[in-house]
Task: inverse folding
């Protein structure tokens, strides 16, 4: 039996800046995971990924990342995505170091 | 210091011009990412976890003051004010923006630096003993060979699209400080019974998923045969090496599968074809290169300022005891500047620190700096009388940590704080180990001990050859750290042995502490180092310390 689908967000890196970016429900890109669209349906996820991949002038290496619903929008389920969301943990200096998500956890 | 001939600047300028146009075409959509990726990788530009990363080659780890200053400029102007020195004597910038990279490459070219062949399936930047040209135990400076290999391998048409990358290291000393046996190919300068200088060639070493210790392919290659011999080895592997599976593509697997004898035979056959194509131009070039690496005119003079400071200043004495090495010239020493301040990121230097090191090199150290694979900076030639002044300057720049060769002098790869390939973090583990043992004030009592940490199986942090090796993995969605003991990165190279099950992130520092406690209990005197004790007593006492519950179960 195929594994049950788990909720996803579409994520990539910004072509010009390299920053981690997420696809929103309106089809724009955001740097905050909490503003990303949490996709509950597998077919929809594939369509949204295709849409992201077609935006080659904005996004590099788009993929579907596992996420879960949180109080303030999607949250990561794996530590890799948590680091991508917040930036390096050795000391606060990443692009995302001053975003609200990084500050929440400090 | 090597001054490039007219060919190098022209070649770099053309490459930079091409890359600038490629970046423009990527940004305006003429190139897809699939088309652009191999082009950016050929110029050292990766896309990592949070940002692009530019890897700049520091050939054989040697820099002038002006070059170090330019590295500082890049850090400040186009990055976040710091650079990261790597285990391959390179520097990485963690935050460049795509549009800025062509300008960064142009700025590097102004001081004869570049990012060519720092990525991709090519012959990578050749590394060398970081004490080359200075060490008391050296037969000959190995850097002219490294420079010869650099010129020969740069854009070599046969070796641009190999099955996998190819790493070469060179050394001219009895003590191996360049981890020769962990390289695809290594050249060690030797002297035969007749007193002639030649080259021992090792092959098939490597870390990563399948760690292997390099083996001697040829005990003595004559000077004028070296380049054609290396070309023959790589040519044989380039044809036979596996391209069906990237994990089996490195030469270590080819050597393992075919056997050393077969590789030797094929190399000899190939050499017969290749040797006649080298008409002597390489040797003329080699002689020219050698002139550029002539030792500086070492000054004479008393060392009384050093002796006085050593006698009266305990902080200076502690630093001198750990951070100096024997120099070949009378009255001189080799200084290792620790880029491993307790709690800081191993290998990270700020732009201000880079500038200060450049200034110190220019004022006191014959304008030479080195980057070590251990992620420290070396002043290879210093007159001992200048050491008190240098130490004072380093202290003011937060660069005077006295910990070279000690437990906090840790090699750590960028790990999951930066690297897209990482499966776990490595830098914070290094930070916490260093801080912990500094708090305990145990570091000098523990003595010589090398901890090496990798955040994935690719082993950029050399964990296999650490006295204590730590490998970070993703086990069912959480970070987990495996420990190996007994690894050795020197001429007696060895792959460490796994202790047993791994440890969670918050258990790894206490686990290292238990290993150290066991060592202190087991050593027969304060002089017996960790690795000596391990070799004498074996794994059992350390296992018992690491897994007390399991021991009880067995009992």
Result:
């Amino acid at each position: 039996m195929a594994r049950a689908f788990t909720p996803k967000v579409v994520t990539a890196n910004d072509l010009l800046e390299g920053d981690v970016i997420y696809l929103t429900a309106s089809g724009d890109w955001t740097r905050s995971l909490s503003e990303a669209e949490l996709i509950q349906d597998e077919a929809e996820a594939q369509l949204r990924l295709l849409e992201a991949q077609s935006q080659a002038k904005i996004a590099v290496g788009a993929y579907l990342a596992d996420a879960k619903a949180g109080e303030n929008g999607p949250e990561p389920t794996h530590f890799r995505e948590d680091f991508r969301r917040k930036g390096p943990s050795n000391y606060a200096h990443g692009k995302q170091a001053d975003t609200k998500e990084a500050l929440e956890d400090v | 210091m090597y001054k490039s001939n007219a060919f190098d600047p022209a070649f770099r300028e053309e490459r930079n011009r091409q890359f600038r146009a490629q970046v423009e075409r990527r940004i305006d959509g003429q190139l897809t990412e699939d088309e652009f990726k191999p082009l950016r990788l050929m110029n050292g530009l990766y896309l990592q976890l949070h940002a692009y990363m530019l890897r700049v080659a520091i050939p054989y780890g040697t820099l002038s003051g002006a070059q170090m200053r330019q590295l500082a400029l890049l850090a400040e102007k186009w990055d976040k004010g710091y650079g990261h020195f790597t285990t391959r004597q390179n520097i990485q910038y963690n935050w460049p923006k795509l549009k800025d990279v062509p300008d960064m490459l142009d700025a590097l070219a102004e001081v004869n630096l570049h990012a060519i062949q720092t990525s991709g399936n090519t012959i990578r930047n050749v590394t060398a003993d970081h004490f080359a040209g200075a060490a008391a135990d050296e037969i000959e400076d190995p850097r002219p060979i490294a420079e010869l290999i650099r010129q020969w391998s740069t854009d070599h048409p046969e070796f641009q699209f190999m099955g996998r990358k190819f790493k070469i290291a060179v050394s001219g000393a009895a003590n191996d400080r360049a981890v020769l046996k962990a390289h695809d190919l290594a050249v060690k300068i030797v002297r035969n019974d007749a007193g002639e200088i030649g080259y021992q060639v090792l092959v098939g070493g490597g870390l990563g998923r399948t760690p292997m210790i390099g083996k001697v392919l040829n005990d003595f290659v004559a000077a004028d045969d070296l380049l054609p011999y290396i070309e023959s080895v790589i040519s044989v592997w380039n044809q036979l090496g596996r391209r069906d599976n990237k994990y089996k593509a490195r030469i270590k697997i080819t050597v393992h599968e075919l056997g050393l004898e077969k590789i030797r035979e094929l190399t000899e056959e190939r050499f017969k074809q290749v040797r006649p194509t080298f008409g002597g131009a390489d040797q003329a070039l080699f002689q020219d290169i050698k002139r550029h690496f002539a030792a500086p005119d070492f000054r004479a003079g008393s060392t009384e300022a050093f002796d006085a400071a050593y006698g009266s200043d305990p902080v200076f004495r502690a630093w001198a005891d750990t951070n100096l090495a024997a120099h070949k010239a009378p009255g001189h020493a080799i200084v290792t500047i620790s880029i491993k301040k307790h709690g800081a990121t191993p290998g990270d230097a700020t732009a201000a620190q880079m500038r200060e090191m450049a200034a110190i090199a220019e004022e006191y150290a014959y304008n030479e700096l080195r980057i070590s694979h251990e992620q420290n900076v070396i002043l290879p030639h210093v007159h001992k009388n200048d050491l008190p002044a240098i130490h004072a300057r380093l202290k003011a720049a937060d660069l005077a940590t006295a910990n070279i060769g000690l437990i906090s002098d840790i090699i750590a790869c960028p790990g999951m704080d930066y690297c897209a390939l990482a499966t776990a973090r490595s830098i914070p583990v290094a930070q916490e180990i260093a801080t912990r043992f500094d708090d305990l004030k145990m570091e000098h009592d523990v003595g010589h001990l090398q901890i090496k940490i990798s955040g994935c199986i690719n082993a950029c942090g050399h964990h296999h050859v650490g006295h204590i090796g730590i490998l970070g993995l993703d086990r069912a969605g959480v970070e987990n750290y495996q420990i190996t003991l007994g690894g050795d990165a020197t001429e007696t190279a060895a792959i460490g042995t796994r202790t047993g099950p791994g440890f969670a992130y918050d258990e790894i520092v206490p686990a290292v502490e238990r290993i150290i406690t066991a060592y202190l209990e087991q050593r027969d005197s304060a002089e017996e180092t960790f690795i000596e004790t391990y070799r004498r007593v074996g794994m059992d006492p350390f296992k018992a310390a690491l897994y007390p519950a399991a021991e009880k179960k067995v009992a």
Q: What stands out?
A: The CA atoms of residues 57 and 90 of chain B lie 5 Å apart. Chain B touches chain A at residues 26-29, 32-33, 47-52, 80, 95-99, 345, 416-418, 425, 427-428, 431, 474, 477-479 (CB under 8 Å). The first strand of chain B starts at residue 45 and ends at 47. The radius of gyration of chain B is 23 Å.
